[in-house]
Amino acid sequence: MCGIVGYCGPKSAKSVLYGGLKRLEYRGYDSAGISVLDADGKVQTVKSVGTVTNLDAGTLPDDASTGIGHTRWATHGGVTDLNAHPHTSGAITLVHNGIIENFETLAETYNIERISQTDTEVLAGLIDHHFASTGSLKDAVLAALAEVQGTYGIVVMSPRQPGTLVAARKGSPLVVGVGRDEHIIASDPQAIVSHTDNIIFLDDGEVAVIDALNIDVYNLANQPQTKMVEEVEQAAEVNMAGFGSFLEKEIHEQPSSLTEVMRGRISGDGRITLGGPDLTADQIAGLDNILIIGCGTAYYAGMYAKYELEDLLGIPVQVEHASEFRYRHAAYSPSTSLAIFMSQSGETADTLAALEEAKRRGVPTMGIVNTVGSTLARSVSNGGIYLHAGTEVSVASTKAYSSMVVALLMFGGFLADRRGQRLGDIRVLAEDLVNLPHEIELCTKLSDPIKAIAAEIAGHSNWFVLGRGNLFPIALEGALKVTEVSYIHAQAFPTGEMKHGPISLIDEGHISVVLLPEDKLLYDKSISGVQEIRAREGKVLTISSRPALEHSDWHITVPMVGHRVSGLVMNCCLQLLALHVAEKLGRDTDRPRNLAKSVTVE
Ligand code: M6R
Predict the structure, then answer these.
(1) Strand, helix or coil for residue 538
(2) Do 267 and 423 meet the contact criterion of CB atoms below 8 Å apart?
(3) For range 424-431, the mean pLDDT
(4) Same domain for 10 and 100?
(5) Is the CB of 377 inside a 6 Å radius of any atom of ligand 1?
(6) What CATH number is associated with residue 254?
(7) Residue 32 forms beta bridges with which residues?
(8) Are residues 498 and 390 in the same domain?
(9) Which end of the chain is more exposed for a tag (fewer CB within 10 A), N or C?
(10) Other CB atoms within 10 A of residue 264 CB
(11) Residue 230 CA, distance from chain mean position
(12) Among 205, 231, 257, where does a domain finish?
């Protein structure tokens, strides 16, 4: 979603800001802007709709050493140059991530003049109003934030306090990179790691006053806070490594990302050991309910795990959309439940809000997260599991999804072991998991035949993806992937639900992708479903570990693998199908329209 970079130090601010915004590009945005303070104490701004390269940064002074930059994902107001950030009101220039919910009331109360349609410009005006009376940038920000409802990550500068930036966060991440005689502020460590490994993570409700040499942090009541400088691992330079897109690269990276999520966690004798979850033996023994909470693909990873964990552990697993969970009074007993929060980014606003709700109810909380040091990873009460999948650039999540499923399955095996359940079952699971990277590699080799099928079906704009048992959640994830990157309307149903309504949509132009289970009984029932679609002239693509069917129009044969991981090989084929269909349709596979990598607003 929106990205923020701010700089004060000896370097040319515009080049640090431009480089930082380029590194945030993968998160998805629709416009960008940079403001710097020139040697005469004037703010100079460039803004543009589109990519960072559209910015006329060459017109900004090279010697300006303080500035702020932004990539915008529109919430209030259309995608226009005028609505792009930074916004200036009086003596205040500001960039903002989040949503100011009461901006209309504030604009009216303080008679704030506006030239854009944004909530952000009102916040700039409000800070400017308070700056006029306090004369201190920090005090003006504190006074303004006391009146604001909503979420924000902001960085503010003013020609009246040159060389200083004031940053504040509530619900939108901000970190400060500490370099030699310089500070860089960003909404994502990615924008900073090429400059320094030393990072201060700001927490919600904190305000930082930053110049080249100093950083002072306060809470919203203006009390000084002590912060630690943490060393973060340099993120490897992210490039496409010869693939046509990050989406393609990340699908093909799964053999190694799956190896990484299991590294050191599954021993040769089939025992699963996890150092991250921080649960007592009593908590594990007393557990009678697991909640898995996330959004989008992270939610679907939980759905898949539900089928396996309920079977393995014999206790209910509730999977919840974070956006629903945060507002409803879910029925569970906090003392005997565990809430697991799933997120690639660790910054999804709904997931973070759901976490706060769970903590308020007193249930132990764990995270399964890819981004080290993210807000979610830092906020859970009982540890968790890092995915170690590496940076995922493509907006469509692929390698993080498969790693999430494996992390949940490993956690199931870990719990089963600690709860004294049959070691045999746990060892079978461990063996299935250990073999998975190789099996996924075999699936990636199906890319060319899948591409040929994609070329034939890409022109059909209505699809079903159907599955039974643990393949139903895979159908859900597959349909999301196809929809997201190709803009085809793909909907998932349990195969057995077809006759209860969806079959009315079947005609000769309709595509059904049917995932066929290994289990003989369910396989036969699924084949009946295929025949019912074919009888109505619908086109069918089957995916199965058994050879081609005479009844389907297209077929993909996947490797036969352990039951608990069988969905993941089918999922890899669906990822490749989504990729190739989107390519065929000429879509931007890494940055699909209207989407952002990390959804940091509600
Ligand atoms: O960063 P998160 O895992 O919390 O993101 C959750 C969803 O926004 C994300 O999975 C989204 O559905 C993906 N674009 C799907 O490919």
Answers:
(1) coil
(2) no
(3) 95
(4) yes
(5) no
(6) 3.40.50.10490
(7) 48, 71
(8) no
(9) C
(10) 9
(11) 23
(12) 231
48 or 236, greater pLDDT:
48
According to the model, what pLDDT value does residue 140 have? Answer: 98
Tell me which amino acid residue 521 is: L
Mean pLDDT of the chain: 95
pLDDT digits (tens, 9 = 90+) for 223-237: 999 999 998 876 666
Closest atom of ligand 1 relative to the 351 alpha carbon = 4
The pLDDT tens digits for 356-389 are 999 999 999 999 999 988 899 999 999 999 999 9
Cα of 476 vs centre of ligand 1, distance in Å, is: 14
Of 412, 444, 476, the position where a domain reaches its end is 444
CA angle 80, 5, 235 (to 5 degrees): 120
Over residues 478-487, mean pLDDT: 98
In terms of domains, do 515 and 563 share one?
Answer: yes
Q: How far is CA 241 from CA 24, 253, 396, 442, in A?
A: 19, 11, 18, 20
pTM above 0.85, yes or no: yes
Q: Ligand 1 pocket, 403 CB below 6 A?
A: no
Structural Rg of the chain based on CA atoms: 25
Same domain assignment for residues 169 and 89? yes
422: buried, middle or exposed (CB in 10 Å: 19+, 13-18, 0-12)? exposed
592 lines ligand 1 (CB under 6 A): no
Distance CA 314, CA 52 (A): 52
Please indicate whether residue 345, judged by its CB atom, sits closer than 6 Å to ligand 1: yes
Strands 384-386 and 365-369: parallel
The percent of the chain in helix, strand and coil, each rounded to the nearest 5, is 40, 25, 40
With the most atoms of ligand 1 within 8 angstroms of its CB, the residue from 297, 370, 589 to mutate is 297
For residue 327, pLDDT over 80 is answered with: yes
Domain count, the chain: 3
User: What is the best residue among 320, 340, 397 to mutate for testing ligand 1's pocket, by most ligand atoms within 8 Å of CB?
Assistant: 397
CA of 102 to the centre of ligand 1 (A): 28
Domain identity same for 536 and 418: no
How many angstroms is it from 401 CA to the middle of ligand 1?
9
Read off the pLDDT of residues 494-524 as tens digits, 9 standing for 90 and up.
999 999 999 999 999 999 999 999 999 999 9
> Which residues are annotated as catalytic?
2, 597
**Domain span including residue 199:** 3-231
Residues 345 and 315 occupy one common structural domain: yes
Domain identity same for 427 and 556: no
Task: Please tell me the predicted confidence (pLDDT) of residue 237.
Answer: 64
> Of ligand 1's atoms, which has the minimum distance to the CA of residue 345?
1
Q: Residue 153 is part of a domain; what is its CATH number?
A: 3.60.20.10
User: Does residue 26 surpass a pLDDT of 80?
Assistant: no
Tell me the pairing of strands 539-544 and 554-557: parallel
Residue ID of nearest Cα to ligand 1 atom 16: 396
Measured in Å, residue 528 CA sits from the centre of ligand 1 at 34
CA of 397 to the centre of ligand 1 (A): 6
pLDDT for 164-189, tens place per residue?
Answer: 999 999 989 999 999 999 999 999 88
